[in-house]
Amino acid sequence: PAPERLAVPEAAAVPEPGTDKPPLRIGMVGYAFMGAAHSQGWRTAGRVFDLPRRPVLAAICGRDADAVRAAADRHGWAAAETDWRALIARDDVDLVDICTPGDSHAEIALAALAAGKHVLCEKPLANTVVEAEAMARAADAAYERGRLAMVGFNYRRVPATALARRMVAEGRLGTLRHVRVSYLQDWLVDPAFPLTWRLRKELAGSGSLGDLGAHIVDLAQYLAGEPLAGVSALTETFVRRRPLPGGPTSGLAAVSADGTGTVTVDDAALFTGRFASGALASFEATRYATGRKNALRLELNGEHGSLAFDLERLNELWYHDATEPRAHAGFRRILVTEPEHPYLDAWWPPGHGLGYEHTFVHQARDLVHAVAEGRRPEPSFADGLQVQRVLAAVEESAEKNSVYTPIAA
Ligand code: SOE
Q: Where is the composition biased (Low complexity) (predicted)?
């Protein structure tokens, strides 16, 4: 049957900023947690930053007609579709933004690139290395035709992590010795929390590893400026059966129905890694860190200094400059809210601070610039593939009781 085309007339009337700029018309697949975050990013980017093209929220897509119509209305999308193929076929869509669970990333991204659209895809890029390889190949071919592809590792766009990258690239830490990263959440501590899609391998690909580990692997490689060469890993599933979910999930909250099902992903992943430069890295990704809500923590130690960051205090970056006289050297807090800091010249006066949602605004800003300038955006699908290879090596190593597993190039 022909897909249902849904009218959303009120949203279409929302005036867009920067009307003198050529539009970049977005079509988004998915409208849940990430869909809402990305909508906010697209809606806000042109209102805060002076962009070369004007993001237009052209159409949003989801399978449930009522829910997608409501999402279009709430988030300001001009039209709604119930079939992603129909969204991709629209000639008023220039860029397809994929905010679905990982099992559909490859199919949608490959179709969108083949149809001549730019693509933004949520992390992790795919559920398997084979899918990610196909996506990276398609992105290379699309680039030859002037189409771009980016993966949504949004934590590169926290001003403090972008500043950390700048400081590492400037050589302030000298040779890196340690990259220590963890991503700690606790929304699975309760064994009565239901078996949502994030706990099913066929939908999510993996558990904490792909969901949280993917972020910290990307950040570690981005900050160090080089890929990981190999890993040794342990993974564990602490609660193996959970109640079946009943009704829709909202963010990370969900309700239970009768019956139970088997958890088919990891609950936690711990691994060490080695960079070709000789630096050592450690990683911990878990949803069982009782009391830790969204604690992505990192510390870099180099011969001339160290940097430390915690996402739960995301306006702060801690810096120890080891070249200062020992008597008064020590970690000091940089409040990353100055106009000289990444992204901050467009935001609030010093000290007023940003939050989680702003990473999606910055992501939209960076992609609009890349499209307008015909420049390959970062993180690219090749970067997403590299992360996928690390995740696969972690799983392989964990299956072999932590045997060191090189990462295939
Ligand atoms: C849930 O663990 C989640 O929403 C992840 O899926 C996101 O990628 C992370 O940024 C926040 O936590």
A: 1-17
294, 230 in Cβ contact below 8 A?
no
- Tell me which residue has its CA closest to atom 3 in ligand 1: 211
Residue 211 CB–ligand 1 contact under 6 Å = yes
pTM tops 0.80, yes or no: yes
**For residue 157, how far is its CA from the centre of ligand 1 (angstroms)?**
15
Protein residue whose Cα sits closest to atom 8 of ligand 1: 211
Helices (H), 90-213: 105-114, 129-144, 159-169, 201-204, 208
pLDDT tens digits, 55-90: 999 999 999 999 999 999 999 999 999 999 999 999
What does the pLDDT look like over 310-360, one tens digit per residue? 999 999 999 999 999 999 999 999 999 999 999 999 999 999 999 999 999
Q: Does ligand 1 have an atom closer than 6 angstroms to the CB of 185? A: yes
Ligand 1 atom closest to Cα of residue 211:
6
How close is the Cα of 210 to the center of ligand 1, in Å? Answer: 10
Going by C-alpha positions, the residue among 293, 311, 289, 306 that lies closest to residue 215 is 311
